[in-house]
Amino acid sequence: MAEVILMPRLSDTMTEGVIAAWHKKVGDNVKKGDLLAEVETDKATMDLESYKDGTLLFTGTDKGGKVQVNDLLAIIGKPGEDISSLVKSGGSAKTSSPAPSKAETNASAPSQAPAKAETNASAPPPSPAPAATDTKKPATPSLDLSAMQEVILMPRLSDTMTEGVIAAWHKKVGDQVKKGDVLADIETDKATMELESYKEGKLLFTGAEKGQKVAVNDLLAIIGEEGKVNVQQIVDASKNKGTSPAPAKEPAAQPEETKTAVQSVATETHSLNGDSRIKASPLAKKMASEKGIDLSQLHGSGDFGRIIKKDVAEYSPAASAPAATQKAAAVSTAPAGQVSFDDIPVSQMRKVIAKRLSEAKFSAPEFYLTITVDMDQAVSSRTRINENAPVKISFNDFVLKATALALKKHPAVNSSWMGDKIRVNHHINIGVAVAVEDGLLVPVVRFADTKSLSQISQEVKEFATRAKNKKLQPADWEGSTFTISNLGMFGMDEFTAIINPPDSCILAISSIQQIPVVKNGAIVPGNVMKLTMTCDHRVVDGATGAAFLQTLKGLLEEPLRMLV
Questions:
Q1: CB atoms < 10 A from the CB of 435, how many?
Q2: Fewer CB within 10 Å, N or C, the chain?
Q3: Coil, strand or helix: which one is 111?
Q4: Distance CA 43, CA 41 (A)
Q5: 381-409 residues labelled b (16+ CB within 10 A) or e (exposed)
């Protein structure tokens, strides 16, 4: 049975998408998870993956064409299947034949946010009907949740997101909501992001409590006018994924009074928003910065645990010490000689790290190249540069700049494996692996070859701060063409890194070691650093990778060449 894929909402302000490229053509076989197309939104160009196995039977527009959000983008089904009715109706045909209903097709399409359609605005409560009538047709019709103005579905907030965790609710059931109000903080696989309301009215229902998971496109909230929206009918439809539910029974849902009380407690007792993203007023942040106070040590007394001026002014480090001591003591309370362990739930970020890196490790034929670099001149140059530089330049900044210049001379290394073709990138966007509490993020320094050492240093520092505070946005980590990973600060002599798809290479940077070296026939102390590059052999051959590393070595050993 043919399935339609509608244009998803890939950003909060997106109204239409432009097809930057199709990765499949009509007639190609498609597997679930295959890259179908690249869609250019108002903020970034993002990959669109298939949610269906089958044959690509139809595409709604050619490369460069525009498609409105929720309009027909593609149809996937069996070869020779009749899709004329779906094409004519834009994917929403409702006939007596067993074609998929609109609710079913939308469930398989990666819809990102509630469509603001004018149809199905609100379904009136079903009037009582005789039992004989109920046996002939369902009490509640099949509902297209994505087309209902009252319904907010879990949006896809990153290109790899499959579910979101409610980090915090900013509104509770019964609250009035205005368009643009922050409803909740959603923890994705890469960051915690704010979800704004697309509707004005009263919050009538929330699909999950703080800490619970909601799959993409599942019911997240209902906002509308009390008494005019049949909340139970919408909830039943969401549970049945658009199928016709059984005749209405006594609601088994939690009473609204109890649900409101539970959500009120969950909302009002958090100070770090459940995800270490500190909520503080600008004045509180400024005062804390001036006094050298770590905001994470404060308990906010403002709305939703927000830290305000009073909290900073009254903060006493001594008062918080006992609590910190108790927390540390609670970590290791296992009796000696007994088996003990903790089971830690896998975070969204860790799930995606496991999935993506496993795919890279077991699908790409990797090989490794290691080279030793004499860093004497880089060490002395950095010292002189930092005497007058507006920002402190690190050795990582040196390597990033040199890598960007070496990639210009070796474009084959700046390439991506696309399945049926190799994409040679003319732009140089370098991803920088940043360790965070839950795992790893890779923000991207764009057009790195055109930036100075000071610009690179400032940008990387800003990315690192935002990554650790979970403030990065999808546009910050998309579009890398090469990646570097630096463990030199941990004293690593040498290590290998796993490729970050779709890049074909990743460079592992070790520490600078002071060891005896031979120069001009004499043994003298020297500063050396090892670089190990992991290469995808489908794209990069050994000689190509070796030539790139030779160029990179030359730039680092004579840093003045980077200024030419």
A1: 15
A2: C
A3: coil
A4: 5
A5: bbeebeeeeebebbbbbbbbbbbbbbbee
CA distance linking residue 201 with residue 474, whole number of Å: 29
Q: How far apart are CA 539 and CA 429, in angstroms?
A: 18
CB 94 within 8 A of CB 101: yes
Nearest to 2 by CA among 58, 61, 67: 58
Rounded to whole angstroms, how far apart are CA atoms 89 and 426? 41
d(CA 77, CA 113): 25
| Unique residue bearing structure tokens 């047709």 | 137
- Give yes or no for a contact between 130 and 267, defined as CB atoms under 8 angstroms apart: no
154, 214 contact by CB (below 8 A): yes
Q: What angle do CA 403, 407, 408 make, to 5 degrees?
A: 125
Q: How far apart are CA 110 and CA 351, in angstroms?
A: 20
Q: What is the pairing mode between strands 482-486 and 505-519? A: parallel
CB atoms within 10 A of CB 423: 15
The mean pLDDT of 395-424, rounded to a whole number, is: 94
Write the pLDDT tens digit of every residue in 92-151.
543 333 333 333 333 333 334 333 333 333 344 444 444 444 444 444 445 566 556 678
Contact 459, 445 (CB under 8 A): yes
List helix spans (H) across 34-185.
84-88, 102-108, 131-134
Give the burial class of 563: count Cβ atoms within 10 A of its Cβ; 0-12 exposed, 13-18 middle, 19 or more buried.
exposed
What predicted TM-score, i.e. pTM, was given to this entire model? 0.49
In DSSP terms, 409 is beta-bridged to none
3-state DSSP assignment of residue 173: coil
Please give the structure tokens belonging to residue 513: 């070691």
Measured distance CA(52)–CA(57) in Å, rounded: 12
Kindly give the pairing relationship between strand 213-215 and strand 163-169.
Answer: antiparallel
Question: What are the CA-CA distances from residue 562 to residues 449, 481, 506 (Å)?
Answer: 10, 20, 21
Residues designated catalytic:
537, 541
| Cβ contacts of 240 within 8 Å, gap of 6 or more | none
